[in-house]
């Protein structure tokens, strides 16, 4: 046989063993039936060993491979023997005999004589270190030795494979720049060599590296590109769907995540294990978007499939979603306490961080049912408050707060809430797992609600301090781009990758769990320690000082609305005092705010509406007696998130005074203390405006020194460059508001949307920003007290003041109002006075009046 068959043809069996195992098995049988020489038989038996291994027939595989080694030795080919020995080592590691497997791989490395053979063996040993033994350091050492040998040999495909695994190993060590470069090079090589499937896998990996690096926009873009390339190949892997779902959920795009997974489940062609895992991802997305009933159905189906597959770890995590969804429907059933208790025990046995959620749920259900066991269950959950994970600690503190409340210990409640919110601040400074964002919001809401309930029993100053404390946490949103501090970025990327590998290890029950858990704890500790030493770290919140607020107000009055147990408490800071008033139910105020915005939209369409009565009713619902207690002079209003978008200019008490609206007192103090760094004026007109952005043309004539971008020149990159550090920036453009993920709210310019995460790239935010865009200032009510959206993001980034609409506006009337605004800005008026002048100039013109009332001055 050896004399009649080309050895390269026989050797091709090894490639077929992975790519086409049935064909490889058939051709290996043909070779073995033809009285082959020892070299050819060694290859055939090695190929059969690989096929048997990948089918799970380990003992048969080991027998074939050991025989192949003896044949290679008889053939007198040390590199053939080394190659088979490496395959034997890989098979032993995959079967759980890692010590014996590494011994064989080490012997193969020492036995190889050819550089290319040694490189391939090093690459396989690195695969075992990275994929099976969780030893990325060792993997990097092997891969960095293999790479130059493969390059010298001109083996571009194996070079690309080595680069791909090297990039993933770099990622595990937090070396994100090197990871992105290595996998990017692998992608290019695979494309050049025509390896389409491996090329798209590396593109998929590039998306995952971007995700772990904290760059969500880039991650989503790369995942979209990978999905398109998979589709060309008629592939739709479950892994990409799961990873895209994770990224979408982390970005807060729960609706898109649910739609993506639903479409893939309906498309079919899934293995049973893939189907179950996608149903679990779907349940997570549905719960995140607030659809508890749908989540209950999806999680129940996933649980049934996992149980049938005897995948206990997965089944128990699906059970947790079932119980959370049952609780979310408002009809948890009588068995919830017992079910959650039993689940908490099982999750503890799995070593799952989510055990705390089960114990907390059991305790809450026991409290609701008046059961004596409630304190014990809450105390069991509270033990997790010392955990290395910030979110787990926050859950533990939440449980302790509930336990203290049950004992009537208000001081203990506030102490636990304070520490719980501090843990959430730490969690949000990084990029938590996709399923954790909604969880963090829920914990924050409940901690804040508990604290505000007990603070409302104290002094007005105490209630104001706690209201500001929660707003500070809520405003510190998870970043969608990597942090500036490179060491923090490195540690966070390594932590995200380690969390993923730890979850997979626990789910499969491998013996690497302890090592990964230790590494996770080490990284979390290093991040906390680093954050304490980084100046201006996002985990460090400025301490709110009420006396500083009083001093900064001067002759102004400050009004903060606080929601406590469904009622509006109005805190009025004026004349050196803090007073408290009670208005009406939050629901009534929200209904009236919606009616008021609808009325403004009707006027914008030319339909007659009586605004005076609506304004009176809205004022009573929002401010109550506080409206009549307001002293003369300017006013600063800090509403709750869902009332931020009320048309405040319709309130009689505010209609004829300068006022501004702010997300929090702390942000107002920061905005008030900042000053313009530049007098540069930027004027931008986006596409599709009814007037064509007519105010931009007039303003550009009035200010010939201004930079004007319009009619094709207003591209995303040019707009961002112009906005960076501008003194006054006016953008006439339509906006798209995202309630589900305000960081992806946008303004339309010539070549696409400018989103909030794009604006985060600015080195310096513009000092004053005028937005004549439909609903650009609407702020998302994501969770109690969270202030998101385009306007609040700009204030957080350092913009002092914004003029923005809270309802749809008429383009033509907007152009007139904007000219009034700029006339006032030209003489140096503050924003509250600027809009007051615009409102006064609109008297006698209902359309112009409605348009002026739809705009708010946000900030200072």
TrEMBL record:
Span of domain CHAT: 615-840
Protein name in the entry: CHAT domain-containing protein
InterPro entries the UniProt entry points to: CHAT_dom (IPR024983), TPR-like_helical_dom_sf (IPR011990), TPR_rpt (IPR019734)
Domain of life of the native organism: Bacteria
């Amino acid at each position: 046989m050896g004399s009649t068959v080309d050895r390269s043809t026989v050797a091709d069996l090894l490639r077929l063993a992975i790519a086409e195992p049935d064909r490889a098995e058939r051709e290996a049988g043909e070779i073995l039936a033809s009285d082959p020489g020892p070299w050819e038989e060694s290859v055939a038996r090695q190929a059969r060993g690989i096929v048997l291994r990948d089918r799970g027939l380990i003992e048969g595989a080991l027998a074939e491979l050991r025989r192949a080694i003896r044949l290679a030795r008889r053939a007198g080919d040390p590199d053939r023997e080394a190659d088979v020995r490496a395959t034997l080592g890989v098979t032993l590691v995959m079967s759980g005999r890692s010590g014996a497997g590494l011994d064989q791989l080490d012997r193969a490395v020492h036995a190889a004589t050819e550089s290319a053979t040694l490189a391939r063996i090093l690459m396989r040993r690195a695969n075992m270190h990275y994929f099976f033994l969780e030893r990325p350091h060792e993997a990097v050492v092997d891969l960095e030795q293999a790479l130059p040998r493969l390059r010298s040999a001109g083996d571009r495909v194996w070079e690309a494979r080595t680069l791909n695994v090297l990039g993933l190993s770099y990622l595990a060590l937090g070396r994100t720049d090197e990871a992105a470069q290595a996998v990017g090079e692998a992608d290019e090589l695979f494309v050049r060599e025509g390896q389409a499937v491996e090329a798209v896998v590396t593109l998929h990996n590039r998306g995952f590296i971007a995700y772990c690096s904290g760059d969500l926009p880039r991650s989503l873009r790369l995942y979209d590109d990978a999905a398109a390339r998979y589709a060309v190949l008629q592939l739709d892997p479950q892994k990409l769907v799961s990873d895209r779902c994770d990224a979408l959920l982390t970005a807060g795009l729960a609706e898109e995540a649910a739609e993506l997974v639903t479409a893939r489940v309906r498309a079919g062609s899934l293995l049973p294990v893939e189907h179950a895992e996608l149903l679990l991802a779907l349940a997570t997305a549905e719960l995140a978007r607030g659809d508890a009933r749908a989540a209950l159905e999806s999680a129940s189906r996933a649980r049934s499939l996992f149980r049938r597959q005897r995948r206990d770890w997965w089944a128990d995590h699906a059970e947790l979603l079932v119980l959370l969804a049952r609780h979310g429907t408002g009809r948890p059933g009588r068995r919830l306490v017992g079910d959650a208790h039993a689940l908490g025990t099982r999750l503890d046995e799995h070593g799952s961080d989510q055990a705390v959620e089960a114990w907390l749920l059991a305790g809450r259900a026991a409290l609701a049912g008046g059961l004596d066991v409630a304190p014990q269950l809450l105390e069991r959950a509270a033990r997790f408050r010392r955990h290395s994970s910030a979110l787990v600690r926050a859950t533990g503190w939440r449980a302790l707060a509930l336990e203290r409340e049950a004992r009537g210990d208000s001081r203990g409640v506030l102490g636990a809430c304070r520490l719980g919110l501090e843990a959430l601040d730490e969690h949000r400074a990084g990029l938590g797992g996709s399923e954790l964002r909604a969880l963090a919001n829920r914990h924050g809401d409940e901690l804040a609600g508990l604290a505000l309930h007990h603070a409302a029993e104290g002094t007005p100053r105490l209630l104001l301090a706690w209201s500001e404390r929660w707003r500070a946490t809520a405003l510190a949103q998870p970043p969608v781009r990597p942090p500036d501090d490179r060491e923090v970025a490195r540690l966070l990327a390594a932590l995200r990758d380690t969390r993923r590998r730890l979850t997979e290890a626990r789910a499969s029950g491998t013996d690497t769990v302890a090592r990964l858990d230790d590494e996770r704890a080490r990284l979390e500790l290093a991040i906390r320690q680093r954050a304490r030493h980084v100046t201006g770290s996002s985990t460090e919140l400025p301490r709110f000082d009420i006396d500083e607020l009083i001093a900064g107000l001067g002759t102004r009055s400050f009004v903060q609305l606080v929601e406590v147990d469904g009622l509006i408490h109005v805190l009025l800071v004026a004349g050196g005092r803090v007073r408290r008033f009670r208005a009406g139910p939050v629901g009534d105020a929200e209904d009236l705010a919606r009616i008021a915005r609808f009325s403004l939209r009707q006027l914008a369409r030319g339909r007659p509406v009586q605004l005076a009565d609506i304004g009176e009713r809205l004022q009573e619902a929002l401010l109550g007696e506080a409206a009549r207690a307001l002293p003369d002079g300017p006013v600063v209003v800090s509403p709750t998130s869902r009332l931020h978008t009320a048309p405040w200019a319709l309130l009689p008490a505010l209609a004829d005074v300068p006022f501004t609206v702010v997300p929090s007192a702390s942000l107002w103090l920061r905005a008030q203390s900042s000053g313009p760094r530049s007098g540069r004026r930027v004027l931008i007109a986006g596409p599709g405006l009814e007037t064509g952005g007519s105010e931009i043309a007039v303003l550009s004539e009035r200010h010939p020194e201004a930079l004007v971008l319009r009619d094709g020149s207003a591209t995303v990159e040019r707009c961002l460059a112009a906005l960076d550090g501008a003194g006054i920036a006016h953008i006439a453009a339509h906006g798209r508001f995202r309630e589900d993920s305000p960081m992806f709210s946008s303004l339309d310019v010539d070549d696409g949307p400018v989103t909030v995460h794009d604006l985060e790239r600015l080195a310096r935010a513009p000092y004053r920003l005028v937005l004549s865009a439909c609903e650009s200032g609407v702020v998302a009510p994501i969770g109690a007290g969270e202030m998101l959206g385009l306007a609040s993001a700009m204030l957080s980034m350092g913009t002092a003041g914004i003029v923005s609409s809270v309802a749809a506006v008429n383009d033509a009337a907007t152009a007139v109002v904007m000219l009034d605004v700029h006339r006032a800005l030209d003489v140096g008026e503050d924003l509250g006075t600027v809009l007051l002048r615009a409102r006064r100039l609109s008297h006698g013109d209902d359309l112009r009046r409605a348009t002026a009332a739809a705009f708010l001055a946000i900030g200072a």
